[in-house]
Amino acid sequence: MKKFLAILILIFTFQTPSQADDIKDFEIEGMSIGDSLLDYLNENAILDKKPNWFKNNEYSIANDLRLETFQTYLSVQVAYKTKDKKYILEGIEGYKFYKKMSNCLKELDEVVDEISKIASGTVRSKKETYKHNDPDSNATITSLNFKFDSGDTISIGCANYLDKNPPVDLRVIFRTKEYSYFIAHKAY
Asked: How far apart are CA 118 and CA 11, in angstroms?
């Protein structure tokens, strides 16, 4: 049975398991790595939310999901292998939006502290600021990662865009090792 963790319910209703040693132990809006997206949307709704962002079609995403059941995030993005007819989740990203980077960074630190308490079997990186890996984006991102022994990752970051309103988003990202590699080396 999965341990329940609704990342980023802003500490107000934050529930924590004693320890979590696998990325599948974490949830964003009830979704976990390894779940089928078909449990949340029908196939037509999934395909309607599919942008064509990647130069390689090994993976696809359903972008800007805004389900009535969401309690923490305004928007969720999920990734699955393009040829997978079960739409098994390989990546899940939850987004909240801010007008000020300082507000986002404060919440980032709170989420990192909570994950640090329960994410056993992980190595935590330093917080760094860098340019978004999408060459068409003007965003800078301040983030850090938790890497599980399996190679799967949880990333928490604040992205600052020059051309969006609101300009800042907090993102909590779960990715399998394979999907992380795809994003870093094949997607753009």
From this structure: 14
pLDDT one-digit tens code per residue, 136-151: 778 899 999 999 999 9
Q: Which residues on neighbouring strands pair with residue 86, listed in sequence order?
A: none
Mean pLDDT on 72-79? 95
Q: Would you give the end-to-end CA distance of the chain in angstroms? A: 36
- Tell me the three-class secondary structure of the chain, residue by residue: CCCCCECCCCCCCCCCCCCECCHHHCEECCECCCCEHHHCCCHHHHHHCCCCCCCCCCEEEEEEECCCCCCCCCEEEEEEECCCCCCECCEEEEEEEECCHHHHHHHHHHHHHHHHHHECCEEECCCEEEECCCCCCCCEEEEEEEEECCCCEEEEEEEECCCCCCCEEEEEEEECHHHHHHHHHCCC
Entry pTM: 0.84
Residues 6+ apart with CB under 8 A from 176: 23, 33, 90, 91, 151, 152
Calculate the alpha carbon distances from 150 to 33, 68, 111 in Å: 13, 33, 22
